[in-house]
Amino acid sequence: SAPFLNALMVLLTPFNFLFGQWKKLLSMIIKSTDENGITEEELLSIVEEAKQDGGIDEQENMLIRSALEFTEQEAVDILTPRIDITAVSTETTKEEIANVFTETAYSRLPIFEDSIDHIVGIIYQKDFYNYVYHGDKEIPEIIRPALFIPQNKKIGILLKELQSKKIHIAVVLDEYGGMSGIVTLNDLVEQLVGELCDGAAGEEEESFIETVEDGIWKIHGSAPIDEVQKALGVPLPCEDYETFNGLIFDTLGAIPEDGSDLEMEASGLRIQVTEIKDHQVETAIVRLAVSA
């Protein structure tokens, strides 16, 4: 069949040339809107297929997925809320600041004037001990400037900004100029590679949701609402709240007093708040309402 195919190639060459020129003419007149690249969903599908085929392992799969999702997240998605922030006042004595550094083991502390909404900068532990505690400088002399960012700042852009300015902490402001929380360089790195914590910290996080017995849980108020939904296996309004506290407070319609013992029903759950501290739910016993 080779001679026959060769004859066809020679015979059809003029037609092939004409059709090729016609294609070029049409491409100049009609611009194609098709993109040669692949979408994020297609890339994720390729990654999943590669994992199933053994081309990459689970850790590599999670790292690639984290990198793809990284640029889409905003500062508000990963910040440490103001209620959980340890900060010191400009009126705090150096002995008290030293105690805070010792108790928390933090290497940096935000410092505020009048209220935590007015952050004036960051104190570094090494500066404090070298120049103030064991030196003759005053605290205002060692305060380093803080980076202030809006809640909707993309964390990919924030990471580059922190790197370029050699800053480790960004203060997140809400639309009214009040402080929503802080984002640290470690927070950003954890979005890519996972939690950077020791065993003790991991055990503390796991205790946010503890199974007491079948159908009964002990839940910390700071537990992420999506993790509560996953652990309990019931649909919860995850888009409306970030933590279990949010669901409880919205159901109550008020901020409970410290030491209160409350019981309520919400989202198919019977919730008995057993401990409230600093107007935040420390622990609550949760049952499925249908089985209570």
How would you characterize the overall build of this protein?
By secondary structure, the chain is α+β, with helices and mostly antiparallel strands. Helices cover 42% and strands 22% of the residues. Helix 5 (94-104) links the parallel strand 2 and strand 3. Helix 5 (94-104) packs antiparallel against helix 6. It is extended. Residues 198-206 have low confidence and may be disordered.
Describe the secondary structure blueprint for this structure.
Layout: H1 2-29, H2 40-52, H3 58-70, H4 75-78, E1 80-81, E2 88-89, H5 94-104, E3 108-112, E4 119-124, H6 125-133, E5 147-150, H7 155-165, E6 169-173, E7 179-184, H8 185-193, H9 199-206, E8 209-213, E9 216-220, H10 225-232, H11 244-252, E10 262-266, E11 269-277, E12 280-288
Describe this protein with a few key phrases:
292 residues; extended; four-stranded mixed beta sheet; 11 helices; five-stranded antiparallel beta sheet; alpha+beta
Uncertain residue ranges: 198-206
Q: Tally the helices: what do you get?
A: 11
User: What is the number of E strands?
Assistant: 12
Class derived from helix and strand content:
alpha+beta
Short précis:
This protein is α+β, with helices and mostly antiparallel strands and 292 residues long. It has helices at 2-29, 40-52, 58-70, 75-78, 94-104, 125-133, 155-165, 185-193, 199-206, 225-232, 244-252; strands at 80-81, 88-89, 108-112, 119-124, 147-150, 169-173, 179-184, 209-213, 216-220, 262-266, 269-277, 280-288. α2 (40-52) packs antiparallel against α3 (58-70) and α5 (94-104) runs antiparallel to α6.
